[in-house]
């Protein structure tokens, strides 16, 4: 798996991007790297990276989030320390970006520094099980909306078609035609497929690189 200093995960609501961001931050920490996780999703009130702060902190991952995270206040405000995500070159930064174009606006202030360093991956999380991304054309529309809002181009796709705890290997395999069409339409490569750990071991090699994940608990 290729690793850049800054990795951004973005996708529509329910794509699973936050769960992947948390797992990816823990994965990097296990490699002995200094890691910070920036929760820039100021739109989704249901599951945020901050919900996993205890586990992340225990693994040595610093969580940076809005003071309004896990509250009913929807304000696109990030603490001053969030600038360390782009300024501190000794730390690997994982960023969880909001689920639509409005949510992606929170990333805008960090884009110049990200582009200047040019050591980033911006990954679109594709989940064919979600209502607004059931086909490649719809997913491409969401992808372009996010790019336009944050002014940062995607560099790859993460396949994360799932039904939560009801996910089976067939759930992922049945989504492959739509995934490959999205790959062709967008011109972006599929970097990996995220799958629950017990399912990951049962997937055929044709699916490509697999990133095993653990479903995170929510506080709701």
Key words describing this protein structure:
single chain, 220 residues, alpha/beta, Rossmann fold, eight-stranded parallel sheet, 9 helices, 8 strands, globular
Structural features, described:
Helices cover 32% and strands 20% of the residues. The protein is of the alpha/beta class. It has one domain: Rossmann fold (3-Layer(aba) Sandwich), CATH 3.40.50. The protein has an eight-stranded parallel sheet, with helices on both faces. Helix 9 (197-200) links the parallel strand 7 and strand 8. It starts with 5 loop residues before the first strand and ends in a 7-residue tail after the last strand. Mean pLDDT is 87; it is low at 69-75.
């Amino acid at each position: 798996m290729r690793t850049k200093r800054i990795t951004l995960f973005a996708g529509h609501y329910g794509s699973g991007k936050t769960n992947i961001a948390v797992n990816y931050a823990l994965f990097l920490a296990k490699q002995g790297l200094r890691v910070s996780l920036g929760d820039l999703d100021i739109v989704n009130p249901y599951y945020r990276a901050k919900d996993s702060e205890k586990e992340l902190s225990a693994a040595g991952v610093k969580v940076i989030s809005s003071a309004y995270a896990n509250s009913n206040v929807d304000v696109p405000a990030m603490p001053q320390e969030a600038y360390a995500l782009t300024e501190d070159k000794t730390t690997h930064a994982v960023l969880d970006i909001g689920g639509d174009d409005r949510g992606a606006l929170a990333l805008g202030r960090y884009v110049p520094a990200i582009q200047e360093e040019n050591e980033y991956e911006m990954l679109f999380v594709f989940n064919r099980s979600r209502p607004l991304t059931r086909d490649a054309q719809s997913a491409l529309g969401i992808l372009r909306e996010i790019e336009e809002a944050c002014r940062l181009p995607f560099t790859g796709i993460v396949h994360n078609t799932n039904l939560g705890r009801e996910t089976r290997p067939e759930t992922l395999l049945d989504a492959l035609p739509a995934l490959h069409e999205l790959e062709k339409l967008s011109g972006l490569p599929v970097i990996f497929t995220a799958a629950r750990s017990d399912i990951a071991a049962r997937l055929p090699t044709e699916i490509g690189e697999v990133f095993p994940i653990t479903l995170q608990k929510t506080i709701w």
